[in-house]
Amino acid sequence: MTTHLSPSRFVSAHSIGATVQIVVDAIYSRIQNGTYVVDERLPSERTLAAELGVARNTVREALDVLETHELIRRRAGSGRFVNSETLAASAPSEIAAQSSPLDLQVIRGILEPDMVRLAVMNMPPNDIESLGETLSKMEAIQSDADQFVRLEEEFYQKLASGTGNPLIVGCYGLVIDSCRQSFRAAHLRRYLTPARIQTYQKRYNSLFNALAARDTEAAVEFIKLHLIEEQRLMLQEN
C-alpha cells in the first residue's frame, strides 16, 4: 500500500540535494493538484528539465525518489506514469478541506508577497524563461476558465520553485490544494469571465516583466494589488 507523503516527508526519507528536493516537491505538487492525473505519462526528462530550469540528471534523480515512494512507476519503453495507487494522495489534503475562503486569503497574503520577492532575487534565467512559456499559454486562452486556472497554478508553482526554498514549494502546494476546493470552483465559474481572464493576463504579464527586470518593488506591488482584487471578489461572492 502506498503511503501518503507530504513534501516535507521526502526530506527526512532521503539525503538529497536542495535542487533535487525542489524538483521532487514540484512534481509531487502537480500530482496532488491534478496537473498530472492517474495513469498519465509524465513529460520527458528533457521537458521537465526545461520547465523547471534544472539539469536532466537532477530531474532523473527526483523521479527516482518519487518512484521509490511508488508515486510514479516506470513502463519499459513507454516512460514514467502516475501510479494509480496514488489516487488518494492526489485528493485535497485534510487541512485544505477544512480551510475557509478567508483562511486561504490570509495565508496567501502572508506567503505570496515574500514568495515573489524571493523569486525576483533567486530565480535563474532558465526558470524565468520557463515562466514566460507558461505565461504565453495563459495569454492564448480566451474563455476556458478551467484551463486558465491550471496554467495559473503552474505559473505560481514555478514562482515557488524559483525561490529556491523547498518549504515554500511545499507550503504553496497546500495553498493550491485549498484553491481547488468547491468554493473556489464555484467562484471561478461565476467570476472568471473572458473579460476578467484578459485583465488577469495583463496583470501576470506585468508581474513577469517586473520579475525579468529584477524589479522587486514592482513585482511585490503587483501581487499585493492582485490579492486585494481576489479578496474583493470573495467578499462579493459572500
Walk me through this protein's architecture:
The chain is mostly helical and 238 residues long. It folds into two domains: 7-90, Arc Repressor Mutant, subunit A (Orthogonal Bundle), CATH 1.10.10.10; 94-237, Up-down Bundle (Four Helix Bundle (Hemerythrin (Met), subunit A)). The protein has helices spanning 7-13, 18-32, 45-52, 56-68, 87-90, 94-98, 101-122, 125-139, 145-162, 166-179, 182-191, 194-212, 216-237, and strands at 72-75, 79-82. A two-stranded antiparallel sheet has the order 1-2. Helix 9 packs antiparallel against helix 10 and helix 12 runs antiparallel to helix 13 (216-237). The longest helix is centred in the middle third of the chain and has 22 residues, at 101-122. The relative contact order is 0.14.
Fourth CATH level, the homologous superfamily of the largest domain: GntR ligand-binding domain-like
Low-confidence stretches: 1-14
Instruction: Provide the spatial order of strands within the biggest beta sheet.
Output: 1-2
Give the biggest beta sheet.
Answer: 2 strands, antiparallel
Instruction: Give the overall pLDDT as a whole number.
Output: 82
- Portion in helices: over 70%
Return the domain count: 2
CATH architecture of the largest domain: Up-down Bundle
CATH topology of the largest domain: Four Helix Bundle (Hemerythrin (Met), subunit A)
Portion in beta strands: under 5%
- The CATH class of the largest domain is Mainly Alpha
Describe the global form. globular
Head-to-tail CA distance between termini: 41 Å
Integer-rounded radius of gyration: 17 Å
How many strand units?
2
The SSE order reads HHHHEEHHHHHHHHH
| Number of helical regions | 13
| Derived structural class | mainly alpha
